[in-house]
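pipeline: protein-struct stage 2 | run 1193 | Erythromycin esterase family protein
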Amino acid sequence: MENELIHEIKKLAKPYAEEGVREELVNRAGATKYILIGEASHGTMEFYRDRAELTKRLITGGGIRFVAVEGDWPACFALNRYVKGSPDAADNVYEALQGFSRWPTWMWANGEVAAFAEWLREYNKDKPREEKVGFYGIDVYSLWESMDEILNILRFRPGIDLEAAKRAFECFDPFNRDGQSYGISASLYGEGCEDEVVKLLAGLQDKWKEAQSVDERERALNGEMNALAVRNAEAYYRIMIRHDAESWNVRDRHMVSALEKLTAFYGETARAVVWEHNTHIGDARATDMAEDGMVNVGQLLREHHGLDAVYAIGYGTCRGTVTAARSWGEPPEMMTVPEAQLNSWEEILHRIGPEDKLFLFGQEEARLLEQTTLGHRAIGVVYHPERERGNYVPTIIPKRYNAFIYLDTTSALEPMEAHVLLS
């Protein structure tokens, strides 16, 4: 059976560097509504670089209206203003990236994102406002940052009660902008602020539909999306104290809601590229996440919109270096990624040949692979190379992704330090 599986994998593998192979991937992905492009770590340069190149090809092919990433709405919206050349945008890309100040800063404040932002700004430069491609964050962590943004927005929005918003946010004051402190109080002692933020969101919902200009529409969207982030961040921090699986689900459901609101904003024919970790974009039902009651973006989008509307592309590597931290909040460092463990997906791909490979699932026969669960490495922002075993997710690869890109040897992402951002 093992020899047959290896034979099937060899048959499916396409040399990624070969002329025309990447175009075949772009052509398949380009016909779908949501193109989800993953990464096996948040600190690998090649994942970011290759994902950006694929995204450029998809954008120039037409129909992509926005890129949505695993980042906070307020920081990404500043970058969105920059790539669209808005009058209130930052003067340069380094200033635009300054908003990514919350740990782990290197996820988005890095040279690869800066280079893509410059390309997208140039691409948008001569296009009408309504045709410019946007860049947005759909993650859920920006509780206090989004509250700050809402108060700034409401100062210039007649008809919405600024004082009522201030009173709603006063509920959060005792927690000193600490999500964990809020979660403990809300979860264990019932001292939460849920009712206040639900009411606030209702007051800001769909206001962009009433706006008269493109700029006004996007300003109204900014208010609604920050309110959505506050509502779901409140739920996330309240639930995470007691329920790991459910807090994960709150986060991924929020990301799907944010994606669907952005699609509604741009029109139902709009298509999007999504940048997130493999654990979010690959269908959770093809992993052991399902056994723990966890859902994710890839699964939910397939359920909401059908298999034909979603195209998920995963990444993996066998060895190299990565940027990560030893514990939450610590400075990042360059770490060695040890060679993949025996009989894992990555180790088998290295064993059959060290060249980079592409797998396109769906139309090709993958009978044995569709019945085989293999360990598939996932590296987070916190990483301990010496304790690698826990980083492998049991996965049925063709059911988790529509396509998979294997880059044999990869290198650490280079963060932009604060002094660079302020220069």
